[in-house]
């Protein structure tokens, strides 16, 4: 890959430490364009991140996870990468990155970065070379180019559909087609090509040498593809839903067994550092096939989104928690928990909507600009705080998304002309997209963009953001920000191993009470019903997500006890 390597002699390196630090760490995801803007251009940047690292250290997180900050045309919010070993000039420089890592190290924080290996940007030097080269050339072999079907090759090579809607193939003027399982500006790499494999190992070393603690691997289940001729049509079963994927790894595009050889190579590189660099897979696969991604000889951890998508009911979450803990033990990893991220409706809003709405109904709600049905913001925040305190009581790694500690809702009312998510255009206006959870953060009650930056914000912020800002909540007893701060402090102090012991009867579970004990003796109890329930006798409340009424745990409330 013809990119610069930027050698430096004074790179920050992580000091040797506990190689298992990540197993019960708290990670904080930053979407850099929306976190903090230092140069008044309306776009968040790395110096802005650095300026706010003391806030994150005070919050109590262990590691900062940066979504892509690489050079990009932003066809997909930065996940179209033009250079894997540089910083987008709008977001800073490599020197800015090094200063950020150094400041994080000074504050006791680690840094994890996104890596996007399934596809590059169409602006990437390799793809530009491929466009200049003839069919059958070495340059095209790094990607997936094919002749079309039909007498004149005018039909796509297969019926494959992009994850963003529309065909997964785009035709060039010379008649060949190239594969893009996401936007046309994101051509898929051919991971059978040795140059592709070797170059990503170089990229892992490049960022590890600069002090990065690990990597979040985008679309980890998509790298290996069956590209043997003739390519297979998929028919009615596209296989983009994990439950549609075959259990034997035979889908031509997703979760093929060959992908694990790639990640075993990555693990050899990551284990060459002290401490070993960590990784977590974004792998949308069946639960039964997630284990290899998280095994110690591959990435070491994998996201389990069952907890995120489960309804806020005690029986459903009991099942999701048990399953996640079992799968993590089987893999030799620790469980992962997440409630919000850059791809989903913020959980303070999801939990403000009727449970029966479902994912499809929530998409319709977004299209209606959040007006139908009307979200119950107060109930949503109460339920979100209960869900968060439940998550933070569980053993394993918790992944927080920027702004959830402020109780930020989804901004559903974004005007159409401000939308930038490619799903909006690619779906023909049927899916509004993910911009509503990417609106820049409010830091102050007032001022330009509520303290995000002096030059406004690249997505419009609603007026009510001021009263949800960090300034408005800091030091305010009972605020969501202070709840997170206290929960993260207590989580570290109370400790415990990587298991739970369930407490209570089947009848209590059915009534909405989820109750478990950690190995050091403290308890998490969630009342996930609309009816108050008694506190257990003989235990002291150390933290509650909502007000308590005498000896009762209120509706939609989680308490920690010891």
From TrEMBL:
InterPro entries: GH, GH13_cat_dom, O16G_dom_2. CDD domains: AmyAc_OligoGlu_TS. Residues 29-438 form the Glycosyl hydrolase family 13 catalytic domain. GO terms for molecular function: alpha-amylase activity. Pfam families: Alpha-amylase (PF00128). GO terms for biological process: oligosaccharide catabolic process. It comes from the Bacteria. Belongs to the glycosyl hydrolase 13 family. This is Alpha-amylase. It comes from Streptomyces antioxidans.
